[in-house]
Amino acid sequence: MLTDEEDRSIDDDMDENGFPSLQLVSEEEEEEEEEEETSVRNGNEDPSVGVSQGSFASNFYRSGTDWSCLLESNPQKSKRLKQADLFQVWGFKKATGTSSGSMVSSSPSKEKNKMQSVSLERFNDRMNSKVPSFGKRKNWGGDNRRRICPFYKKIPGTPFTIDAFRYGLVEGCSAYFLSHFHHDHYSGLSKGWSHGPIYCTPLTARLVKMSLLVNPLFICPLELETEHVIKGIKVTMLDANHCPGAALIHFRLEDGRCYLHTGDFRACRPMQLHPLLANHQINVLYLDTTYCNPKYRFPSKEDVLEFVVMMTKKSITKQPKTLIVVGAYSIGKESVYLAISKALGVKIYANSSRRRILLSFGWPELSAKLCSRGQETPLHILPMSSLRPETLEQYLLTYMHQYTAVLAFRPTGWTYSEVTGNQLNLIRPRLSGNITIYGVPYSEHSSFLELREFVQFLRPNKIIPTVNVGNAAHRDQMQSYFQEWLKEQ
Predict the structure, then answer these.
(1) Residues spanned by the domain of 163
(2) What CATH code is carried by the domain that includes residue 25?
(3) Which helix (H) or strand (E) holds 432?
(4) From CA 83, how far away is CA 371, in angstroms rounded?
(5) What is the pLDDT of residues 162-215, one digit of tens each?
(6) What is the model's pTM?
(7) How would you classify the pairing of strands 405-411 and 219-221?
(8) Residue 432: strand pairing partners
């Protein structure tokens, strides 16, 4: 964990509306960047996003929410560079002078941890490392001002924050909620966490303790589908249909107001049957807007799984010595390789770090199918970042006496194409010699149409987007979508 002295940033962390101007790069955002680069190379660059007439931020603030604490105390304050002694930077020499505004940390080991990039491959290799890594966009070793927690990570009228660990000790917060165990949500948690209790689902709690070595005294598991009273507020965790342990978090305040924070989720019809969502008006909805763009109209998970199994069987029939590879994040995409395992009647190979995580789920069906030797099964799980022809060619060499070809699946919503749409049979794989890679639109986030249906079902009084909010044009465009959805009957 970053200590109080290390958790610093520059003045422009927030824009004038209290939104972050810079954000962590998550595993899924890295996938998005790769897919967008590919799209541009293929001449399919997205059109620019238009700006609606009314600003989302101005509409939100005009509703009466107090956001004054998010403004910079002196936005006109000039920024100056400071020359540093490299021997002080590297920790070989103590700082001279009395200034507390040092631009760098004097600890080389801490600086190294802050400079690590958010890479799934490195995450898998270093799952047991004590300090989680930060995004690749910025060196956060700035001045002595603490980074401000964005308003959309705070629940009004409560001392609660959601997925706000990288801001350290948040003023006025006495309970920190974690929606799920993906790096861009738990970043900031580590062995040294001591700012307050962490509330999450039991599965997420096991991962936090096992992988981040957080002191168990700070971890407070909350069972799904059970109402808990925390600081006088009723809190219920609901299945988010995202990755294992992910939760929607429902808050009911003493005055009857209800807030729903989706974390990351894929909206589905069963959610509309839940009494808490069907029978109580949601005053504020904190919405996962990862795919809040009309071009994302994913097929169902079931349809994608059926396609994956079909293509696997065809490949095995044509070439029995085919190694099947499924790409996955640190957690998530389990249904894809479980479907293949069931269809072929084979075990699932994953390295020791991933096996340790999967076994912690406590899912007997999955645990029984795992094996520790790659030679025992043709079905292997690799980091999503490894699904490149050159990487898979090297991987195949390890098993050259057993297999002569690789069939790989990259299951992520970023592979969705408007050209193929829901016609999965139109998907064309990437071919490179004996390597075949299918990008399949298996998403664990809501599509644009699923977001619309969910919003129209809930009809909340206010919607706060939580993803892609660093750009004013994107925020205004999303707000225009929300207004349009709520006008429809």
Answers:
(1) 11-36+52-62+144-295+446-487
(2) 3.60.15.10
(3) strand 430-432
(4) 54
(5) 999 999 999 999 999 999 999 999 999 999 999 999 999 999 999 999 999 999
(6) 0.73
(7) unpaired
(8) 435
